[in-house]
Write a structure and sequence with these properties.
Elements (H helix, E strand, L loop, with lengths): L3 H14 L4 H5 L5 H8 L7 H11 L3 H6 L3 H19 L3 H18 L2 H18 L2 H14 L5 H17 L3 H17 L5 H17 L3 H14 L7 H16 L3 H18 L1 H18 L3 H17 L3 H17 L3 H8 L11 H18 L2 H15 L5 H17 L3 H14 L40
Length: 465
Amino acid sequence: MDEPAEIGRRVARLRAERGLTQRALAEPSYTPAYISTLESGKVRPSEAALRFLAGRLGTTYEELSTGRPPHLATELRLRLTDAQRTLATGDASEAAELYREVLGDAERLGLDPERAEALLGLGECALEAGDLAAATAHFEAAEQFLADEPPPRKARAVRGRAVAHLLAGELRYACYLLETAIDELTAGGLADPEALVLLYTAVISPYTDMGAHARAVHAAETALALAPQVRDPALVAGMHRQVARTFLASGRVAEADASLAKAQSVYRQLQLRTDLAHCHWMRGYVHAQNGDLASAEAELRTARDMLAARRAALYTAQVEVELADVLRRLGRGPEAADLLSGLLDLGDSHGAVHAAGAHRLLGLMAEERGDTEAAERHYVQALALLERSGAGGDLADLCRLLGDLFRRTGRTEAALDAYRTGLGHRAAPGTTTLGPAPAGVPGLAPRVVGGGGSGPGLRVGGSPS
């Protein structure tokens, strides 16, 4: 809201343009003296007073309190839905440019809700592009604008920031952020399905990478049980966008806003396809752990196809590590090796656990070919990637593999050193240093996707993020 003097001048100008006296404007709710005091800038009008005066003057509360024509904010929201549609269909770079333009205009106009939405969009674009530092900065800035909003409104920002920390190897902090947000939603009776699917799918990966398989499976079960409540009506979203354009062109701003709100909600749901793909990813991982390789391959291919359709290159490459392990165990080594190539360019700030998993698998395949030198090189690279990730189970397993390799090649002391290092990282299966698991969603019976323990399958270092 502008300063009282500016609002007073605006009221006086609009009253004069409409040929109203102060008495005609004031009655029946206020007095001419109040209007005179307001127009002179000596009193700050209440929201109720401004809404009354806006109705009498034939304008909107927003225009009267800020001087901005109402269509400006609506036009920004329309451009936000365009950016959301672009991101939902997979073109992150084009969407980022649209979000940047909206952010600049929202800052200039002082429209904080639109600034927050633009920042969330830029964060999602940066995540898909693998720019974790930029993603974190955008999500943190969005959280500041959403600080006073209810928990469901903050879920996207929290989830985005947690995923960025996860991909940077900060597993426990990612869990902390997500579990805190889940508990805040459920404890407050605000069990919004869309927000919970976002949070539960994001927490699957750090749970799995730290060995908390029971928690990971429960998160996937809960997300899949909630999924039917989150629809995917792309055609309806497009209809709402076009209807909003029509309303806006004919000056029906309030109706355009209502259509845009529906379209924005749908486009956020469309982006949940990435999160649902992560659930298929987790189901494939569970099947692989339990030795059901055919089912694992089917689920992982479903996840990969959904992610590839979203052009989520980083996630697509990561799920291919799990698929490559399944293919190797099915005796399809060359096909597995082809899948792993996309991970080898990922460094320690871009999916270190999955890149390490790729090197681990390549090491195993090199050993199977009898190429111990290549195997050792891949194992060492995997260890270097995992050292700062907190994935203790993966580190212990790699130390065992490296120790076995040293022992078979006659390097006993080196083998002992590797085994000792591995023992230092070993943790009991299914445990972490985390506190109690998040409370369940009241009244929800999660869909069962498989067992929660470690099966005969090999741990390749990665799971849905």
